[in-house]
Amino acid sequence: MFKTLDDLPEEGRLLVRIDVNSPVENGEVQDNRRFSRHAETLRELADDGYTLGVLAHQGRPGRDTFVSLEQHAEILSSHLEREIQYVPDTYGEDALEAIRDLSGGEILLLENVRMIDEELADRTPEAHADSAFVETLSGEFNAYVNDAYSTAHRGHASIVGFPQVMDAYAGRVMEAEYEANSAIQEREFDGHVSMALGGTKADDLIHVMERVDDTVDTFLMGGIVGELFLRAAGHDVGYDVEDTDFFDEQWAEQEDTIRELLDSYGDRIRLPVDLAYEDDAGERAEVAVEGVEKGTSFLDVGSETVGEYEAVVADSEAVFVKGALGVFEDERFADGTVGILEAIARTDCFSVVGGGDTSRSIEIYGMDEGDFSHVSIAGGAYVRALTGESLVAIEALEE
Question: How confident is the model over 276-320, as pLDDT tens digits?
């Protein structure tokens, strides 16, 4: 197991990696749950008198979301209610001067690590450790703290390079996410275990289903993936209409596997019995799956499906959620996603909610995060944890 903040020496200068990668709308970085979660780690360390240099990334080169971290410093400052200094440099002279001017309890956010070539280079952890980026910054700090669980599956320099040359610890977000998201592989449940699977990527969810079939009793399907399974079951859905491109390519790649899963899992897979769409008046309308001929895009599971799924959740000892059952960002088509989450909130079951932006629906629709055992801020790392795959950041901390 890795070391945590509880194992830190009593004082020192810490290099902390967080993940506040966020949506950017019209050039404005959007505040989200990642800021508040990482702010808790930074607050604890600053209150304990540590001097903090903070690394983070935003977007990828060539994308509209690839911006500096100046706004991130302002958002973090608002969450911490204390100044987060920012320097538009990662490990050059300006960064080093700002780092050396820091004193106990002060926090400095360095520039977007993806603005340097070393971060995304395809190298081994040992090679990353030999980079000028890692060599330079490691000399300025006493220890390294990785709190960026959302990027734990990325073998980038700021994730795997520093633990090669510095004492390394897991931050509070890293610790909590790893423990909760690994529960499906590491815990034993005496009662019924359910998993709600939605979203747009069939490959991710098929892999999850194959790896957790010894633990999960019932899979509740929705979203794009649910339609693909309905197509395999003989219903006239699960293909592209109206210039969409969600279905046909995935069907060509995954048809055989989906059919095999339906055949081998039987009634452990619960498919939607009705689906919702936008009618000519712009209102939510629903249609039964049996006998339907798809002529428009389906945007959510229907009311009868929601009721059936809620009943399964009510009888479960544990429920895991990966992906949305519908386009919950549109209130008309949030019934499936919100219905499942509200059913979980009403029970005393162990629950983990994650996968892309799914957890965001909890905030959008005014639910209490405290009603869930864990709400994950991770995407790809959450999928890997569910399937029991190794995470390079965890391996680096353990080593």
Answer: 999 999 999 999 999 999 999 999 999 999 999 999 999 999 999
- 295 burial level (CB within 10 Å; 0-12, 13-18, 19+): exposed
- The domain limits of the chain are 5-178+394-398, 183-367
Mean per-residue pLDDT, 25-46? 94
How far is Cα 73 from Cα 222, in angstroms, rounded to an integer? 38
At residue 60, the pLDDT reads 93
* Domain with residues 5-178+394-398, CATH architecture: 3-Layer(aba) Sandwich (3.40)
Tell me the C-alpha distance between 336 and 105, whole Å: 45
**Placement of tokens 């289903």 in the chain:** 209
Closest by CA to 17, choosing from 393, 375, 398, 381, is 393
Pairing of strands 298-301, 274-278: antiparallel
User: What Å distances lie between residue 346 and 305, 339, 349, CA to CA?
Assistant: 18, 11, 9
The three-state secondary structure class of 4 is strand
Q: What CATH topology corresponds to 183-367?
A: Rossmann fold (3.40.50)
Tokens encoding 30: 């959007």
- H/E stretch holding 93 reads helix 93-100
Pick the closest to residue 185 from 397, 390, 393 (CA basis): 390
Query: Residues with Cβ < 8 Å from 394, sequence gap 6 or more?
Result: 2, 152, 178
Q: Which residues contact 89 (CB under 8 A, 6 or more apart)?
A: 95, 98, 110, 111
CB-CB contact of 56 with 159 (8 Å): no
Using the 8-state DSSP alphabet, how is residue 293 labeled?
A: B
